[in-house]
Design brief:
Helix content: 25-40%
CATH topology of the largest domain: Peroxisomal Thiolase, Chain A, domain 1
Binding site for (3S)-3-hydroxy-3-methylglutaryl-CoA: 31, 145, 244, 277
Number of domains: 2
CATH superfamily of the largest domain: Thiolase/Chalcone synthase
Number of strands: 18
Active site: 81, 113, 235
Strand content: 15-25%
Distance between the termini: 43 Å
CATH class of the largest domain: Alpha Beta
EC number: 2.3.3.10
Protein name: Hydroxymethylglutaryl-CoA synthase
Organism: Listeria grayi DSM 20601
Largest sheet: 10 strands, mixed
CATH architecture of the largest domain: 3-Layer(aba) Sandwich
Bound molecules: acetoacetyl-coenzyme A
């Protein structure tokens, strides 16, 4: 009998500032409907220089971990493509800030937006071999393309934390994942570059083509058809992206299946519309959004997940919802977090965006957010706790 392994708890954290996409469109002399409808974004999360991927990861993980979890976790994996060090893993800092017992493995994984899924699969395999332990997986990123750049309306920031264990209380994964690797330069960030190089049309095209290829092979190997799924959740660089990919496989499906999957897609993008791209965390922010906002899902329902990381690696995998999964969700906390953010004017956003942390200058920093950067000494960031 296969062991039940999956996500026991999950939560997200986004920085406490946002820009309204209509304001951004007006400032960039673009029709607001291009951002609201064409790209599918309402708001975009923005962070000051005193908040980084460690700040987001720690706040997201704090929402879900109990004292017992801190004692049982023997592995901490951070998936990110906006790391703060070329060598040392942010997971090591996260491990200390959270107070996880010391006999644990901590490391970072990178493959663009796919890194969170690589981390999750590593965690699932570890738990299959060590059922008594727990693994903390965090996908944390800052998506920045530059002021007035083509990618600007698809920026965002934040983290998703997931506790992986046996007998999970939210979703148990099937052993059916299928990955696809293709060496393509659609989006990449050479060492030393602050912003990514991106071929927007190629990235969109590769995302859709990767999904079609993986889906076709997955359905062949797994014997699952679209009709078996209650919902599909996608990596969401901007909310129109997953929908474009989904529409590419709907032809020939029953009207009932098409309507059901499309209606669920809308539930999965509710949070991303307000936060923007979380890179590694986007697929999992979408999963949280789906589970917290779709009222007609139930235990046993089959959920498909499509992960995409430029460069490019794609993966499709699935899981079944667990009895009473609703009780594990933090819907109220998440709604409050999104509602209590401060809206920035475009001028404030541009100032915040351009004000960068200089790690070569020792300094103290003010910020009221937990786990924000309190000082930099000898290039080392210290965090409030
Ligand atoms: N009203 C309604 N819709 C409008 C409109 C209006 N007034 N004006 C334009 N639109 C529509 C367009 O018709 C288009 O819709 P379709 O895609 O359905 O045809 C949509 O708005 C976008 O218009 P453009 O294609 O002209 O947009 P653009 O040239 O400004 O580029 C982008 C959009 C490629 C997403 C760009 O923002 C970008 O490069 N973003 C970063 C890369 C990215 O996110 N790629 C996604 C796949 S890669 C990935 O997933 C990894 C990752 O996280 C980065």
């Amino acid at each position: 009998m296969t062991m039940n392994v999956g996500i026991d708890k999950m939560s997200f954290f986004v920085p406490p500032y946002f820009v309204d996409m209509t304001d951004l469109a007006v400032a960039r002399d673009v029709d607001p409907n291009k951002f609201l409808i064409g790209i599918g974004q309402d708001q975009m999360a923005v962070n000051p220089k005193t908040q980084d991927i460690v700040t987001f990861a720690t706040n997201a993980a704090k929402n879900i971990l109990s004292a017992e979890d801190l004692d049982k976790i023997d592995m901490v994996i951070v998936g990110t493509e906006s790391g703060i060090d070329e060598s040392k893993a942010s997971a090591v800092v996260l491990h200390r800030l959270l107070g996880i017992q010391k006999f644990a493995r901590s490391f970072e994984i990178k493959e663009a937006c796919y890194g969170g899924t690589a981390a999750l699969q590593f965690a699932v395999n570890h738990i299959r071999n060590h059922p008594e332990s727990k693994v903390l997986v965090v996908a944390s990123d800052i998506a920045k393309y530059g002021l007035a750049s083509g990618g600007e309306p698809t920026q965002g920031a934040g983290a998703v934390a997931m506790l992986v264990s046996t007998d999970p209380k939210i979703i148990a994964f099937n052993d059916d994942s299928l990955a696809l690797t293709q060496d393509i330069y659609d989006f990449w960030r050479p060492v030393g570059h602050d912003y990514p190089m991106v071929d927007g049309p190629l990235s969109t095209e590769t995302y859709i083509q990767s999904f079609q290829t993986v889906w076709q092979e997955y359905t062949k190997r797994s014997q699952h058809a679209l009709a078996d799924f209650a919902a599909l959740s996608f990596h969401i660089p901007y909310t129109k992206m997953g929908k474009k990919a989904l529409l590419a496989i709907l032809e020939g499906e029953s009207e009932e299946a098409q309507n059901r999957i499309l209606a669920k897609y809308e539930k999965s993008i509710a949070y991303s519309r307000k936060a923007g791209n979380l890179y590694t965390g986007s697929l999992y922010l979408g999963l949280i959004s789906l589970l917290e906002n779709a009222e007609d899902l139930k235990a046993g329902d089959l959920i498909g997940l499509f992960s995409y990381g430029s460069g490019a690696v794609a993966e499709f995998f699935s899981g079944r919802l667990v009895e009473d999964y609703q009780e594990q969700l933090l819907k109220t906390k998440h709604a409050e977090q999104l509602a209590h953010r401060k809206q920035l004017t475009i001028e404030e956003y541009e100032t915040m965006f351009s004000d960068r942390l200089d790690v070569d200058k020792d300094a103290e920093y003010e910020d009221t957010l937990a786990y924000s950067i309190s000082s930099v000494r000898n290039t080392v960031r210290e965090y409030r706790s």
